[in-house]
Amino acid sequence: MNRAQALAIALVLLAAGAALAVFTARGGATPVAFDGTVRARRIPAVVLTDDRGAPLRLDAPAHGAIVIAGYTRCTDECPLTLAKVATALRPLDHRTRPQAVFVTVDPVHDDPATLHRYLRAWDNTIAGATGERATLSRVLVALGAGDGRGPARDHDTRAFIVGRGGDVRAELPADATPATITAALRALGEEHT
Length: 193
Prior knowledge:
Elements: H1 3-25, E1 48-50, E2 55-56, E3 65-70, H2 77-89, E4 99-104, H3 112-119, E5 127-130, H4 133-143, E6 159-162, E7 168-172, H5 178-190
Helix pairs in contact: 2-5
């Protein structure tokens, strides 16, 4: 093996290692086929319960959705993220704006009434969602937000943009500004006009 071949092999191994590190850091949530292609993530067709006790599905939101995973007893990231999302929703036409949903990672404590009281701080512009732990886990895995089985305090702090077909379109970091969130939601709305 000559030096060029050795370098090429080293670069391929380095790239594969980097890809594996990213995949592992994300909890292995992005499905990857054996040929290395990334398959789209889609929200499963499951029924959750919203904060008013009504059925809620995220696999086909009429205008898309922004989904946040968290829990009502969170004292730091959740309130901050929800405040940013509520602010980001204000400039959008309420008739056509994407749905905003706060999916609990703590269904033992976050029943519909608890979620509704908690989300009142943001004028209930964000819907709460709860359900059976296994059902919530399927949604969280599809988002790429873990499986919700660990301690609630270890939840994912990103916000997820979901298209009308239930496909996860984008992930916004915890430090995304309201303006960035509004822009992402507007872009989602423009896809459907």
